[in-house]
Design brief:
The protein is flat, with a radius of gyration of 16 Å. The protein has about 100 residues and is mostly helical. It starts with a helix and ends in an 11-residue tail after the last helix. Helix 1 runs antiparallel to helix 3, helix 2 packs antiparallel against helix 3 and helix 3 packs antiparallel against helix 4. The longest helix has 28 residues. The protein has one domain. About 5% of the residues are buried. This is Multicomponent Na(+)/H(+) antiporter subunit F. Keywords: Cell membrane, Membrane, Transmembrane, Transmembrane helix, Transport. It is found in: Cell membrane. Its main location: membrane.
């Protein structure tokens, strides 16, 4: 069972490369924010898998909840900032 969850964790890390590409090469700021949010969501699941592998799920659930809350607040703050700046739907500045 530990081998199964280890394989799932490695697969999850590999699937995190797709949002990382969107985060780095996204044409708009909104695409980059969605990529960061997707990476944060997958990280929460990865933390729970690590907690199961170390047999300390209770501790890692608290860490995952705190990380999910920080991820949510950071994406909300960034989207509000770019919406106020009117730069949410414009082209990328790294061309």
């Amino acid at each position: 069972m530990i081998y199964f969850f280890s394989c799932i964790a490695v697969g999850l890390c590999l699937t995190m490369m797709l949002p990382l590409y969107r985060c780095l090469m996204g044409p708009t700021v909104l695409d980059r924010l969605v990529g960061v949010n997707a990476i944060g969501s997958k990280t929460v699941v990865l933390l729970l898998l690590i907690g199961y592998l170390y047999e300390r799920v209770d501790m890692f659930v608290d860490i995952a909840l705190a990380y999910a809350f920080l991820n949510f607040v950071a994406v909300l703050a960034a989207s509000r900032y770019f919406h106020k700046r009117k730069g949410l739907y414009e082209e990328s500045f790294m061309e």
